[in-house]
Amino acid sequence: MEPSVYLFLMRRKAGILPSLEDLLFYTIAEGQEKIPAHKFTTALKSTGLRTGDPRLKECMEMLKVTVKTTSDGALDRHLFKKCVQSNIVLLTQAFRKKFVIPDFQPFCAHIDELYDNAKNLSGGQVADYIPQLARFSPDLWAVALCTVDGQRHTVGDTKVPFCLQSCVKPLKYAIAVHDHGTEYVHRFIGKEPSGLRFNKLFLNEDDKPHNPMVNAGAIVCTSLIKQGASNAEKFDYVMNFMNKLAGNEYVGFSNATFQSERESGDRNFAIGYYLKEKKCFPEGTDMTSILDFYFQLCSIEVTCESASVMAATLANGGFCPITGERVLSPEAVRNTLSLMHSCGMYDFSGQFAFHVGLPAKSGVAGGILLVVPNVMGIMCWSPPLDKLGNSVRGIQFCTDLVSLCNFHNYDNLRHFAKKLDPRREGGDQRVKSVINLLFAAYTGDVSALRRFALSSMDMEQRDYDSRTALHVAAAEGHAEVVRFLLEACKVNPVPKDRWGNTPMDEAVHFGHHDVVTILKDYHNKYNPSDSNSSKDKQSAEKNLDGML
Ligand code: GLU
Fold first, then answer.
1. DSSP H or E segment with residue 253
2. Residues in Cβ contact with 500 at an 8 Å cutoff, skipping those fewer than 6 apart
3. Alpha-carbon Rg of the chain, whole angstroms?
4. Strand, helix or coil at 92?
5. C-alpha to C-alpha distance for 132 and 144, rounded to whole angstroms
6. pLDDT grade for 179, boundaries at 50, 70 and 90
7. Which of 47, 92, 101, 109 is CA-nearest to residue 376?
8. CB-based contact 376:312 (threshold 8 Å)
9. What is the DSSP string of 266-332?
10. ∠ Cα 452 455 458 (to 5°)
């Protein structure tokens, strides 16, 4: 153990430092003697954690019992400690904003806006090749998300069960790779987009299905799971995986859909016979029973909520965020995300990879399983489909999400400041950016300042003492920096720090005559009273082009 950590723990043990439980109490109590239980649960929910989160089981059970012993339903420091101590690490992380989306509530407000925007869309057709799908109202619309830290948000019809249909394809492929490894699975199935309809009777040059996201590939993939076992055993095996992927949230089965899929599955039977003829299955495979199993897997039911946890498990490298259980190998998850990225959205896959840049898989029931790797899983669900078979509202939501947040695989996370980065904490980020700005001004690093200006940093930010970059540069005598801040960035030339000093005062005080001249010339050129006007702000952008 690091000596400093050891010392810290010893001091805490000796009672010199407050315990984590006490710190948490003070954070939530906001100066009060007691915390009402509902205040605690409300504060908890604002971090994105749910009271039903399996990781908070002990805390919630203790809370229920403890509240009954109080007259007013409120917890003093002692009772609070009793309730939170079993899950203190997770709770501390949550309240210290250590989760992947630190400012969760503002992020959820954005999600709700995107949801509302897509809700207004009326186009598309609900699939009607089987009655079980045709019955769904075209108005149903739901979005649920779960981050890799188990923060949850849902909006709309997120508790209505629907069938995974083709959204199961990446999941069963992941199971096959988890069980057998990449090399074995890809002896039977390719890795290329097919450029053809998902249910085309067609194989690649090696007489293999193009990839596991089209029907031919998914049928072969189905044959690789638990070879030699009965269909009943196979079904249990996959359901067990589904439950684990979903953190034991809702996973069901629609027998009616299964029967209908089988009765109307001529195309899949045709594909099955073709695959059999071309010897695409492992030896000893009973093709018709594989087709039965294939239809069963299409008929597995989820809700938007439970499927968001499945997507989050993929986002989290195969660990389910809300149970912490390892469900899939990292290799299986990486392969799956790669193929979702290139082949997951039917004949829209290329466009989706281009515009949205995230792995996703859609299904005929209207689901889109979307993964933001290392950040979150999302399930969008709305039955009306566009001509290519993707949910109209789902596509709109995914596109809007990536226009708003820098989630596209190729969005630059460091320099492109025009999009929202929900992974960063607003407050912390601001402090860091002031420090960087003032440090660059202090060291006379004009090229760093150019980069900051280019990435839309506020060049007039002030530190704790209300000092700006211009104050610091003037005090240090960095003439080039002063010129850049004035001419290119058009910062206010006369900001006052907490002692009432302007940059001119600093330059005079420290005897930087060249800086004094620059400031004077600038003052004469522009009337300082309107140096902050919007006209000047606009010309600042033009000047930046020249000076950067
Ligand atoms: N049950 C459908 C089939 O195999 C799945 C369609 C889909 O979701 O793409 O044809």
1. strand 251-253
2. none
3. 29
4. helix
5. 23
6. very high
7. 101
8. yes
9. HHHHHHHHHHHHTT-SPTT--HHHHHHHHHHHHTEEE-HHHHHHHHHHHHTTTB-TTT--B-S-HHH
10. 65
CA distance 72 to 37: 9
Question: Is the minimum distance from the CB of 294 to ligand 1 under 6 angstroms?
Answer: no
pLDDT in tens, 217-261: 999 999 999 999 999 999 999 999 999 999 999 999 999 999 999
Q: How far is residue 204 from each of residues 77, 193, 345, measured CA to CA in Å? A: 67, 10, 19
HEC string of 107-164 equals: HHHHHHHHHHHHHCCCCCEECCCCHHHHCCCCCCCEEEEEECCCCEEEEECCCCCEEC
> Nearest CA to 313 among 299, 295, 326?
326
Q: What is the residue-averaged pLDDT of the chain?
A: 91
Helix (H) or strand (E) segment spanning residue 546: helix 534-547
Q: What is the mean pLDDT of residues 135-163?
A: 98
The rounded distance, in Å, linking the Cα atoms of 176 and 217 is 12
> Would you say the CB of residue 298 lies under 6 angstroms from ligand 1?
yes
Q: How far is the CA of 408 from the centre of ligand 1 (A)?
A: 27
How many percent of the chain have pLDDT more than 90? 80
Whether the Cβ atoms of residue 441 and residue 470 lie closer than 8 Å to each other: yes
Is the CB of 215 within 6 Å of ligand 1? Answer: yes
Average pLDDT over residues 145-160: 98
Q: Mean pLDDT across the stretch 1-23?
A: 63
If you count them, how many residues does the chain have? Answer: 548
Q: Identify how many contiguous H helices and E strands the chain contains and give both numbers.
A: 26, 12
Q: Quick one: tokens of 344?
A: 């997951």
Average pLDDT rounded to a whole number, residues 68-78: 95
Q: Which two tokens stand for residue 451?
A: 């980069």
pLDDT in tens, 495-507: 999 999 999 999 9
Evaluate: CB of 364 within 6 angstroms of ligand 1. yes
pLDDT at site 546? 47
103 lines ligand 1 (CB under 6 A): no
Which DSSP state fits 495?
Answer: -
3-state DSSP call for residue 188?
A: coil
Name the residue among 394, 234, 384, 237 with its Cα closest to residue 308.
394
Residue nearest to ligand 1 atom 4, measured at CA: 215
Question: Could you tell me the CA-to-CA distances from 521 to 69, 296, 354, 518, 526 in Å, in that order?
Answer: 74, 79, 50, 5, 9
| Max avg pLDDT among 2-11, 13-22, 125-134 | 125-134
Q: Is the CB of 222 under 6 A from ligand 1?
A: no
